[in-house]
Amino acid sequence: MKIMTIGDTATSWGPVSRVLHWVAAALILVLVAHGYWMTDFAPRGSHVPHYMWHASVGYALLALMFVWLFWRLGNTSPRLPAGPAWERVAVVAGHSVLYAMVFAAAFTGWALAGTARKPLDSMFGLLRLPPIVNAAPDPERALHATLGTWHSIAAWTLVALVALHVAVAVWHWVVRKDDVVQRMIHSATQ
User: Fold this and answer.
1) Cβ-contact 4, 186 below 8 angstroms
2) pLDDT (tens digit per residue) in 9-59
3) How far apart are CA 13 and CA 185, in angstroms?
4) Predicted TM-score (pTM) above 0.70
5) Got the DSSP string for the chain?
6) 127-128 and 122-123 beta bridge pairing
7) Rounded to the nearest 5 degrees, what angle is found at the Cα of 96, between the Cα atoms of 186 and 88?
8) Domain residue spans of the chain
9) HSE of 29, CA atoms in CB hemisphere, 13 A
10) In degrees to the nearest 10, what's the CA dihedral of 100, 146, 122, 63?
11) Per residue in 138-171, pLDDT tens?
């Protein structure tokens, strides 16, 4: 009899890791698409509700990333497929930089939210978050512009890293024909 485990195993990611991965991926996609749309195409005068929603989703992603980080620290990871040592280093480095950039985009967004003319300090109206930057001493909005630039750089860097992550996954699936992609899709069983 096969028993499903919620934790990760040496051969597969468990359902918790898979859900966290795919929900984070969906939130990142939504945030990037919505962020691009709301800053470049949203009708004039409709920005505030979009910024509030975007901030709420960003706070939710940040919370999810902390849960995922603690989950990863408390669980084993599936063994890497056979390959040269540089690939193992690249996997660890790649995931570390990807996670760091999610946090960079989230924290620069949170800082940017503190410089908005209307506070963006709520997660869907359910939870208030303290600003990590207060715009009160910045009447000329220079800090807002700087943080906006850094948030945009972090977001577009994240897009590039996600594209690379997807490309490597496709390479494992199509070229290497190993189980790297399948173990993020299929249930872990023992």
Assistant:
1) no
2) 888 888 999 999 999 999 999 999 999 999 888 888 888 889 999 999 999
3) 8
4) yes
5) ---B-SS--SSS--HHHHHHHHHHHHHHHHHHHHHHHHHHTSPTT-HHHHHHHHHHHHHHHHHHHHHHHHHHHTS--PPPPS--HHHHHHHHHHHHHHHHHHHHHHHHHHHHHTTSSS---EETTTEE---SS--TT-TT-HHHHHHHHHHHHHHHHHHHHHHHHHHHHHHIIIII--STTGGGTSPPB-
6) antiparallel
7) 70
8) 15-184
9) 8
10) 0
11) 656 788 899 999 999 999 999 999 999 999 999 8
Distance of alpha carbon 158 from its chain centroid, rounded?
8
The residues, ordered by sequence, that sit 6+ positions from 6 with a Cβ below 8 Å of its Cβ are: 14, 15, 16
- Say if residues 35 and 105 touch (Cβ distance below 8 Å): no
d(CA 29, CA 5): 29
111: exposed, middle or buried (Cβ count in 10 Å: 0-12, 13-18, 19+): buried
Contact, 189 vs 15, CB < 8 A?
no
Tell me which CATH code domain 15-184 carries. Answer: 1.20.950
Q: How far apart, in whole angstroms, are the C-alpha atoms of residue 181 and residue 185?
A: 7
